[in-house]
Design brief:
- This protein has 228 residues and is mostly helical.
- The chain has one domain.
- Helices cover 83% and strands 0% of the residues.
- It contains 10 helices and no strands.
- Helix 3 crosses helix 8.
- It is globular.
- The two termini are 28 Å apart.
Length: 228
């Protein structure tokens, strides 16, 4: 019970810090929307190209914009010397990891909702009945993204050029999740029949399995990473 209270307190603390600054969410959102706008401008006269390229750019924008937030995940703790206090507190380091993942998931989802709104406007998305499935895919992908990203961000936070190293290490690990979301895109963005439940549910099952693996491995590895 004490660990659960500590988890909730750490998530609240992280979210309050982000609400006070808002720069991480704003930077991620502006970067992602700008990428999407450039893509839509390039193919604005070709409806078929919009249907093919739009979903791909949507996920690429999330991939790259997310690293902006991950690169700042431990900025406050390092600048204020808070990380040392957290690590010496009578709280399981795994709980601190889960709190970081939860907070990162929350503000990445805020960014993705802005991006989804921009996608609806720029690419004339009209499959409203598929929005719940798309949101589930986004949530599942973002959870795995944060689970891996927080561990790697902890490894690269103290080195020069850490943001570049973060991307180099992060993207190869996320390849299975990228494949899953691209398969999910085929079920959401084009006009397939919603009665094909097996095709619609398979990417979500894969994402849930990957989330479980990434969270478990991250929970085990993160205390070793921060102690080093």
């Amino acid at each position: 019970m004490r660990q659960i209270r500590a988890l909730i307190s750490l998530v609240r603390w992280d979210c309050i810090l982000e609400l006070r600054r808002l720069d991480a969410v704003l930077n991620m959102s502006l970067f992602a929307v700008f990428m999407l706008w450039l893509a839509s401008f390039a193919v604005s006269s070709d409806k078929e190209a919009q249907a093919r390229i739009g979903p791909l750019i949507f996920w690429i924008a999330i991939l790259f914009a997310g690293t902006v937030g991950l690169s700042r995940a431990f900025l406050v703790e390092q600048a204020g010397g808070v990380l040392t206090g957290v690590l010496t507190a009578p709280v399981d380091h795994g709980v601190f990891y889960l709190a970081k993942v939860a907070a990162t998931w929350l503000y990445m989802m805020v960014m993705e909702l802005f991006l989804l709104g921009a996608y609806v406007v720029l690419f004339n998305f009209t499959h409203w009945e598929r929005v719940p499935f798309l949101l589930g895919t986004m949530a599942g992908f973002t959870l795995g993204y944060a689970a891996v990203g927080i561990v790697i961000a902890g490894m690269t936070a103290v080195i020069r050029g850490g943001e570049v190293v973060l991307r180099v290490l992060l993207f190869p690990v996320l390849v299975p999740m990228v494949i899953a979301i691209l398969e999910a895109s085929e079920s959401v963005f084009p006009g397939i029949s919603l009665t094909e439940t097996q095709r619609l549910s398979r990417p979500l099952v894969i994402l849930i399995a990957l989330d479980t693996i990434y969270l478990t491995v991250g929970y085990v590895l993160f205390p070793k990473v921060v102690e080093e």
